[in-house]
Automatic annotation (TrEMBL):
<feature type="domain" description="UDP-glucose/GDP-mannose dehydrogenase C-terminal">
    <location>
        <begin position="390"/>
        <end position="496"/>
    </location>
</feature>
<feature type="region of interest" description="Disordered">
    <location>
        <begin position="1"/>
        <end position="34"/>
    </location>
</feature>
<feature type="binding site">
    <location>
        <position position="331"/>
    </location>
    <ligand>
        <name>substrate</name>
    </ligand>
</feature>
<dbReference type="InterPro" id="IPR014026">
    <property type="entry name" value="UDP-Glc/GDP-Man_DH_dimer"/>
</dbReference>
<dbReference type="InterPro" id="IPR028356">
    <property type="entry name" value="UDPglc_DH_euk"/>
</dbReference>
<feature type="binding site">
    <location>
        <position position="397"/>
    </location>
    <ligand>
        <name>substrate</name>
    </ligand>
</feature>
<dbReference type="GO" id="GO:0000271">
    <property type="term" value="P:polysaccharide biosynthetic process"/>
</dbReference>
<keyword id="KW-0560">Oxidoreductase</keyword>
<feature type="compositionally biased region" description="Basic and acidic residues">
    <location>
        <begin position="1"/>
        <end position="12"/>
    </location>
</feature>
<feature type="binding site">
    <location>
        <begin position="323"/>
        <end position="327"/>
    </location>
    <ligand>
        <name>substrate</name>
    </ligand>
</feature>
<dbReference type="GO" id="GO:0005634">
    <property type="term" value="C:nucleus"/>
</dbReference>
<dbReference type="GO" id="GO:0051287">
    <property type="term" value="F:NAD binding"/>
</dbReference>
<feature type="binding site">
    <location>
        <begin position="220"/>
        <end position="223"/>
    </location>
    <ligand>
        <name>substrate</name>
    </ligand>
</feature>
<protein>
    <recommendedName>
        <fullName>UDP-glucose 6-dehydrogenase</fullName>
        <ecNumber>1.1.1.22</ecNumber>
    </recommendedName>
</protein>
<comment type="pathway">
    <text>Nucleotide-sugar biosynthesis; UDP-alpha-D-glucuronate biosynthesis; UDP-alpha-D-glucuronate from UDP-alpha-D-glucose: step 1/1.</text>
</comment>
<dbReference type="InterPro" id="IPR014027">
    <property type="entry name" value="UDP-Glc/GDP-Man_DH_C"/>
</dbReference>
<feature type="binding site">
    <location>
        <position position="223"/>
    </location>
    <ligand>
        <name>NAD(+)</name>
    </ligand>
</feature>
Amino acid sequence: MAQAKHISDPQGKKMSCSKAGGSPPPSVEQDQSSNEMDIKNICFVGAGHVGAPSATVLAFFNPALHINVVDISEALVRRWNSNSRHLPLNDEQGLCDLVRVTRDGTLPTLLWTDDDGAMERPGRKPNLVFSNDVKGGVREADMVFLCVETPTRSEGEGAGMAADTGSLEKAVKDVARWAKEGVIVVLKSTVPVGMARRVREMISMIRPTLSFEVLSNPEFLAEGEAVRNLLEPDRVLIGLSMTSTGHAAALALADIYTTWIDQEKIQKISNTSAELAKLTANAMLAQRISSINTISAICERTGAEIAEVQTALGSDNRIGAHFLQAGIGFGGSCFQKDVLNLVHLATSLDLRDAGDYWLQVLQINRFQTRNFVQRVISRLDGSLADKKVAIFGWTFKKGTSDARETRSFHVVKELLKEPVKEITIFDPGCDLADIRAAIRSPGGLESGKSECPNSNVTVHDNPYSACQEADAVLILTDWEQFRCLPDPERPSVANPKDHGVGAASSPASYISLGHTASSGVRSIISKLSIRDSPEQNDRSNAFTNPLGHLKPELPCPADCRDCNNKTSLPMSADVQVDWKRVSTKVKSPGWVFDGRNMVNVGEMQKLGFRVEAIGKASVWESDAY
Ligand SMILES: NC(=O)c1ccc[n+]([C@@H]2O[C@H](COP(=O)([O-])OP(=O)(O)OC[C@H]3O[C@@H](n4cnc5c(N)ncnc54)[C@H](O)[C@@H]3O)[C@@H](O)[C@H]2O)c1
Ligand SMILES: O=c1ccn([C@@H]2O[C@H](COP(=O)(O)OP(=O)(O)O[C@H]3O[C@H](CO)[C@@H](O)[C@H](O)[C@H]3O)[C@@H](O)[C@H]2O)c(=O)[nH]1
């Protein structure tokens, strides 16, 4: 077991958690520094997009803590324990190496000093364990982070609006049943406002004698940037109940974060404020996208150019340049559900106008997708009968293999309302099997086939077969691979299958990715090298420079299930679509509908394409469609 991490207050007094049902102290202003909690063992419940990267980064910077990550999914845990070829989330740059360091430990290495001497840097013991043992993980823990999914409820009261907290409640029951005295429960999932209070009530009801605290610690990482966001968050919110034990628990959590995050970034606020701030952050980001998308539609009809408008807006410091990229609408597992959650909250508080305001953000998102599809149909002579449409991009954004709530799905669904002859789908980062599963899922695209019995949707592992004889290519995800740049030196894909799975997860590619545009990896490298300084090492004892220390991996066993279930990512991240080659495949006049403003229209025209771009009036027909 790793050495105990001792978290103490400046005055060194001790205080244990109070019973949940106990009466709160008279004032929140009382002695907030008089607490000491001995955190040695942490459990993360949920090894998904949030739980696993959060646990890994926390384990990395806190080598003295033991971290268990537990999940009910056997397949997922098997992959977290596998050879790095099969690690989940291998599109999260830097994550694979951090997992290897923390899960496997490291070897001692020699370091060269300034005077050409050498000193041995000791290896590091493993302190991260993935398992399905929820009971064991919770039982040992001084602190439990709940990181399970909270999708929109599909049935019952609030269906289609409220968050489904079923998985969270199940995890809370497990905590109530098995947790030890004094446990700190940390809500990392995005939850409805009031959830911390409900969790407190649930636990006290199930186990009235247990002493515990509940903190809200919503996560703000974005997929594809998880490691960078976790290393350098804009802020860390710690929501607490304003009691002395609440403060003590918040202090214990803050002390763990300050092993790598500046104290000033940690905001201690009430549980309710933290819950509402998380929903509002996502709602406001979504709102900006919907706002700019309405303007892009106006641009298309007036001749104004969205790129110019965006630059003008973004250079106003009060507005800022982020989240002003017009497109076919926002996707992903969070924005829609969190806006709906906010609408549901406002409506349930009898604030109908406030709810309607946020609902409009989602209506505009749907409008934007329909508007784009209408434009496609209009340019293709008002009918898709006998037309083949090639979709470039399935994931909800670049840099992730995740296609939850992707707008591409909705575009294809809209297209299938027409008697379209054929739709092909190509995505450079999404597992082909996942795309096929989404098409076949209940409510998936095949349900559209009844409206369009002759339709034919196929998934391709390269862009060239997808666009063979296509009447139009639709760019729906902002993958860098789709850019058409005036650079004759840029490599093209001779055989896309040469650049396969795992490219982003081997140590070699970690280094090679460092010189690409990856700010995530650069950020890790710079953080790690900063921590080479003795002062930094003393502060947290954190391990540095994992690249020289990684333990060699054992090959997969002959019967490795994950080798047999091999995923197939078609292209590597630094290879562009060869648009010249595409131009030889598609049907004349070479329509390209750029839903993410990825291609350089001038360059594409030189190749003979007709491009219709978001937020740009058509140069091919003067009349509005
Ligand atoms: N995905 C993101 O980028 C992101 C970012 C910030 C916040 N969030 C929020 O974080 C939460 C988790 O999101 P996610 O994307 O990581 O979800 P996910 O689906 O990727 O992972 C959730 C995991 O929890 C496991 N799980 C469910 N119930 C369990 C239980 N009772 N015991 C043990 N394991 C259980 C599931 O098997 C799954 O692996 C959600 O509330 C989400 O809104 C997500
Ligand atoms: O200017 C922009 C920016 C984004 N998008 C789209 O918006 C969606 C969401 O993008 P992004 O926010 O980058 O991805 P997520 O991984 O969904 O992250 C969001 O949702 C997470 C889950 O709550 C939060 O933690 C993050 O802070 C929040 O950015 C994607 O479809 C993007 O293509 C645009 O259309 N225009």
